[in-house]
TrEMBL record:
Protein name: Copper oxidase
Leader sequence segment: none
Gene3D superfamilies assigned to the protein according to its UniProt record, in alphabetical order: Cupredoxins - blue copper proteins
PANTHER family recorded: MULTI-COPPER OXIDASE (PTHR11709)
Organism lineage: Bacteria, Bacillati, Bacillota, Clostridia, Peptostreptococcales
Classification via CDD domains: CuRO_1_2dMco_1, CuRO_D2_2dMcoN_like
């Protein structure tokens, strides 16, 4: 089972051989730190949108309702599907979805198991940066529990919030400037550290972490205390004999990467972007932004919780 911390799973109804999903593109309000909210756009009340799980050879129908103030579309990033279902109205015969309307994307899953994404491909400079994105994961029906015990997905994100004073974390509701290239908040699954959920594992687990990135920035993700193997790129499995052993991996815009490691060093270990500005919340101290912690069972994160409480009290007034 793949866990997407802080993000829901998209349910479906099966009729005959077809799995029917529903996505609603809509304005939403997302809490990225306690008391700090953003007016974003998302799917089904969330940004990132709910994670979609399918299997190879599934027949799917994904109905997308548009509750936005402008037309939209959905691109199924990395999937090999018919041209008119690919969701790029400016180029393809795939239609735009006007406000108040819906469109049914129907296709068969022909890709092998792997990590993919979905996102808007209409007025992308606005809609992607406002938060219209999510994970699309093709599960492996043959994978055994003894192969991977913990499996996570993390969507990397960044936002420029309007009218918030530099070097401050004043509670409030803020609009996003989608045209800015100078982000001041960096997220994992729509939250900033230390508000991100920890990744809970056990000693001697085989762990997979899947990363996705739709935004404008690249992110070198570094993991403390462990080496990992790069097991997949853009949803394509890398043969075991060709996998690189690393502790930092660059997650470029538009890419997904899977890493795997053997959990043999118990503790509470940071997992974070290595760009210094990206591990800050609006240029404030201390550590924040695009980060989380991998926590072994038995290390019940008391220190983590104490740090978070201290952080909130000092910086946000909780």
């Amino acid at each position: 089972m793949v866990i997407t911390p802080d993000v829901p799973v998209l349910n479906y109804i099966k009729k005959g051989n077809v799995k029917y999903f529903e996505l609603v593109a809509q304005p939403i309000r997302r809490e990225i730190l306690p008391g700090i909210y953003i007016n974003a756009w998302g799917y089904n009340g969330s940004t990132p949108g709910p994670t979609i799980f399918v299997y190879p050879d599934d027949e799917v129908c994904i109905r997308v309702y548009n509750q936005l103030p402008q037309p939209t579309s959905v691109h199924w990033h990395g999937l090999d599907i018919p041209n008119n279902m690919d969701g790029v109205p400016a180029v393809e015969p795939s239609p735009k979805i006007n406000p108040g309307c819906y469109f049914d994307y129907r296709f068969k899953i022909t890709n092998p198991p792997g990590t993919h994404m979905y996102h808007s491909h209409f007025y992308t400079i606005v809609q992607d940066m406002m938060g219209l994105e999510g994970a699309f994961i093709i599960l492996n029906p043959d994978e055994k529990k003894e192969d991977i015990q913990r499996d996570f997905f993390i969507m990397l994100g960044s936002h420029t919030l309007k009218n918030i004073d530099p070097f401050s974390l004043k509670k409030g509701v803020y609009d996003i400037n989608p045209f800015s290239m100078d982000a001041n908040f960096f997220t994992m699954n729509g939250r900033c550290f230390p508000y991100t959920s920890r990744l809970l594992i056990e000693n001697e687990d085989n762990v997979r972490i899947r990363f996705g990135n739709i935004g404008i920035a690249n992110h070198p993700i570094h993991f403390h205390g462990h080496q990992f193997l790069i097991s997949a790129s853009d949803g394509n499995t890398i043969k075991k004999e060709n996998r690189l052993l690393k502790n930092t991996i660059l997650i470029e815009s538009g890419s997904t990467w899977d890493i795997e490691f053997y959990a043999n060093n118990p503790g509470i270990w940071p997992l974070h972007c290595h760009f210094p500005h990206h591990v800050s919340n609006n240029k404030t101290l201390p550590f924040g932004g695009m980060a989380t912690a991998v926590v072994y069972k038995g290390f019940d994160s008391k220190k983590y919780q104490e740090y978070a409480k201290c952080f909130y009290k000092k910086n946000i007034g909780f």
